[in-house]
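TA notes, week 10

Several of you asked for a full example with nothing omitted. So below is the full record: C-alpha cells for the whole chain, then the designed sequence directly under it. When grading your own attempts, check the secondary structure regions first.
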C-alpha cells in the first residue's frame, strides 16, 4: 500500500512498530534475536489487552523459539483486530480510517478515490465509494530481522551443543512456526551456512500451488555480487529470495558494512542493468533444486523486488530512486526515530536525537562484533561506560551473551565488551611494554567496546516502565548520519507527508544529497585506511587502498554522467554537482598528500 518501509532499528526501536503502524498499510521490520526483550514485550501486551500472560521460562525446551512464535502470533492478532475495528469506523470524523487514506501517496489511486468520496455530494455514490474503500484496507507486512552473525551455540545441562539450537536458527524456527502471513524474514550481515541449511528443511518458505509465498525471504546486501552469491546459494537449496534489500555501506544506522569504495549509485545501476539476468539465472537453479527434491516446479519465475535504504531524506531523493532505478521500495529508518507513533524510544533518548548534530554521530568501534558501528554520543550507555572506566572497573556484566566471540583468554567465547575480557586484555597490554602511543591506541580500542545487547534493548523497557534486565538500565542508540539533519519530533502523518512530498519537514538547509553524503563518508573511510596503513603497512594494504581510491573515483565519474544525462530540478542538480566537486577535490588532495608518505615493506 506504500512505497516505503521502516527497516529494523536496534533491538528495541522497532520491536513493536507493526502494532503502531501496520494498520495503516505500512510495512516494518522487528528484530527477533533478543528473546528476553521479546518475553518482556509479551508480558506487556498481554497485560495491556487484559489477557492472561503465561511466562515462557528459559528452562523450557526450545524456549527461545517458543517466545518468538508466541510474540509474533500476538502481534499478528493485534494488527488483525486493529484492521477489523478500523474498517467499521465512519468516514469524515477524523478517525483512523480517514488517516489511513490521507497518508497514502498523493498520486495513488486509493488517495484519489478517497478524495472523490469526501467531495461528492451524491449520497449513493458516496456510499458506494466508501464501501469500496473499506474493502481495500489491508495491513502492512509484519517482517522480522535476523542478523546472521549472532548465532552462538547453546548447550544442554551436560554441556553438549544442542542440535539446531543456535541463536539464529532458533529465531528462524520461531518465525517459521508463527501465524504471520504475507510476511518476510530479513537476513542481514552476510552468509551463515548453518542457517541456510536449516532453512532448507522448512516448508514454511515453499511456494503454494499458485507460486505464491506466504513467508518470504529478503536478503540485505551491500552490492550486486553479494546478492548474486547468496541468491545462487539459496536457489540451489530450493529457496527463493523475494527481495534484495540494498543498504548503503556507510550512510546507514547500526552496523556499517563498508564496501571497497563502491558507491550506492553505481551499485543501483548494476542492479538495474542485470536484474532480469539475475532472475533468470536464479530461477533456473531454483527449479532444478525443486526437481531434485521431488517438489512441483514453477512454470514462471516469481518476482524479485529490489529495495534500497540508507540516508534517504527528501521526497525528491525517494522519487528519483524509484523512478530512475526502478526500486520497488525505499527504506526510511533514522528519521522515524523522531516519530513516537512509529518507533519505541524513551523520552531522554528522543530529546538527545532531536538535538543531534553532525559531530554527535560517528562511525565508532563500540561494537563487540568488531564491525564499525554508527553511534550517538551522550547516551546513558556511553556515560555509564565512562563511569565504569573512571572507577577502574571497565566493561559490562555480560548477561545476554549474544555477542560472545572471543577466545583469546578463555576456552568458551566471551564478549569483548565484558568486564572479564577487558580486565584480562588490559593486563596483557600493560605487560607488553608497548610504546606509549601504541599502548594508548590499543587501550582505547579495548575500552570503546560496549554492551549492545542491553543498551539497544532498554529504550522499550524504559518507555513501558518494565523491569530492567539484571537491573541494567542504560540506553545506547545507533542512528545513521541522517539524524543530524532532522531535529523536529513529528507525527506519523507529518513524516508520511514529508516522504511523499505533500508537506516537507524542516531539515537542516546544509543537508547534502544522499549520494554526496555517502561519498564524503567513503572519503573519510579512505583517509582512515591510509592512516592505519602508516602503522602496519605492506604491499597488500597498498593495493587495497589504491583499489578503494579507484572505486570512489569511478563513482564520482558515474555521478557526473548521471547529472548530465538525467533531468533533475536545476537547484537540485547544482547542489549535487557542487557537492561532488568539493568531494572530488578533497579526495585527490587527501590521497596525494598522504599516500607518498607510505613506504611498502
Amino acid at each position: 500500500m506504500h512505497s516505503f518501509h521502516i527497516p529494523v532499528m536496534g533491538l528495541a526501536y522497532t520491536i513493536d512498530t507493526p502494532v503502531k503502524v501496520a494498520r495503516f498499510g505500512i510495512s516494518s521490520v522487528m528484530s527477533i534475536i533478543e528473546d528476553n526483550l521479546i518475553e518482556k514485550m509479551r508480558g506487556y501486551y498481554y497485560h495491556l489487552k487484559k489477557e492472561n500472560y503465561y511466562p515462557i521460562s528459559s528452562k523450557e525446551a526450545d524456549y527461545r523459539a517458543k517466545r518468538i512464535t508466541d510474540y509474533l502470533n500476538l502481534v499478528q492478532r493485534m494488527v488483525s483486530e486493529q484492521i477489523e475495528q478500523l474498517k467499521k469506523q465512519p468516514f469524515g470524523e477524523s478517525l483512523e480510517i480517514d488517516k489511513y487514506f490521507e497518508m497514502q501517496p498523493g498520486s495513488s489511486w486509493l488517495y484519489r478515490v478517497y478524495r472523490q468520496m469526501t467531495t461528492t455530494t451524491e449520497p449513493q455514490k458516496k456510499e458506494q465509494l466508501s464501501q469500496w474503500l473499506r474493502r481495500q484496507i489491508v495491513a502492512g507486512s509484519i517482517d522480522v530481522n535476523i542478523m546472521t552473525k549472532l548465532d552462538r551455540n547453546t548447550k544442554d545441562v551436560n554441556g553438549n551443543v544442542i542440535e539446531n539450537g543456535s541463536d539464529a536458527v532458533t529465531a528462524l524456527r520461531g518465525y517459521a512456526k508463527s501465524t504471520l502471513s504475507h510476511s518476510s524474514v530479513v537476513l542481514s550481515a552476510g552468509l551463515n551456512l548453518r542457517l541456510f541449511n536449516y532453512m532448507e528443511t522448512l516448508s514454511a518458505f515453499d511456494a503454494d500451488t499458485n507460486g505464491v509465498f506466504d513467508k518470504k525471504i529478503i536478503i540485505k546486501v551491500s552490492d550486486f555480487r553479494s546478492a548474486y552469491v547468496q541468491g545462487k546459494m539459496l536457489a540451489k537449496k530450493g529457496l527463493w529470495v523475494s527481495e534484495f534489500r540494498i543498504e548503503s555501506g556507510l550512510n546507514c544506522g547500526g552496523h556499517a558494512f563498508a564496501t571497497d569504495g563502491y558507491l550506492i549509485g553505481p551499485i543501483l545501476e548494476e542492479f538495474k542493468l542485470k536484474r532480469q539476468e539475475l532472475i533468470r539465472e536464479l530461477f533456473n537453479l531454483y527449479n532444478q533444486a525443486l526437481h531434485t527434491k521431488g517438489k512441483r516446479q514453477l512454470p514462471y519465475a516469481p518476482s524479485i523486488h529490489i529495495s534500497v535504504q540508507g540516508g534517504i531524506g527528501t521526497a525528491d531523493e525517494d522519487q528519483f530512486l524509484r523512478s530512475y532505478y526502478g526500486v520497488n521500495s525505499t527504506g526510511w529508518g533514522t528519521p522515524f526515530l523522531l516519530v513516537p507513533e512509529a518507533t519505541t524510544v524513551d523520552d531522554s533518548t528522543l530529546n538527545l536525537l532531536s538535538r543531534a548534530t553532525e559531530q554527535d554521530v560517528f562511525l565508532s568501534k563500540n561494537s563487540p562484533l568488531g564491525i564499525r558501528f554508527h553511534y550517538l554520543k551522550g547516551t546513558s550507555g556511553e556515560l555509564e561506560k565512562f563511569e565504569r572506566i573512571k572507577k577502574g572497573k571497565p566493561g559490562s556484566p555480560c548477561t545476554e551473551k549474544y555477542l560472545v566471540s572471543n577466545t583469546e583468554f578463555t576456552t568458551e567465547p566471551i564478549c569483548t565488551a565484558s568486564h572479564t575480557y577487558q580486565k584480562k586484555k588490559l593486563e596483557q597490554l600493560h605487560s607488553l611494554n608497548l610504546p606509549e602511543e601504541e599502548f594508548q591506541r590499543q587501550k582505547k580500542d579495548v575500552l570503546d567496546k560496549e554492551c549492545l545487547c542491553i543498551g539497544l534493548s532498554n529504550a522499550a523497557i524504559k518507555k513501558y516502565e518494565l523491569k530492567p534486565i539484571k537491573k541494567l538500565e542504560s540506553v545506547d542508540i545507533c542512528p545513521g548520519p541522517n539524524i543530524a539533519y532532522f531535529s523536529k519530533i513529528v507525527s506519523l502523518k507529518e513524516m508520511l507527508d514529508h516522504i511523499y512530498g505533500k508537506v516537507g519537514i524542516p531539515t537542516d538547509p546544509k543537508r547534502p544529497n544522499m549520494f554526496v553524503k555517502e561519498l564524503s563518508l567513503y572519503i573519510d573511510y579512505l583517509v582512515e585506511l591510509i592512516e592505519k596503513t602508516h602503522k602496519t603497512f605492506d604491499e597488500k594494504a597498498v593495493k587495497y587502498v589504491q583499489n578503494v581510491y579507484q572505486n570512489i573515483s569511478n563513482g564520482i565519474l558515474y555521478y557526473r554522467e548521471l547529472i548530465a544525462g538525467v533531468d533533475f530540478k536545476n537547484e537540485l542538480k547544482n547542489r549535487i554537482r557542487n557537492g561532488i566537486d568539493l568531494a572530488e577535490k578533497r579526495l585527490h588532495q587527501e590521497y596525494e598528500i598522504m599516500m607518498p608518505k607510505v613506504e611498502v615493506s
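The chain has a mean pLDDT of 95. Use that as a sanity check on your answer.
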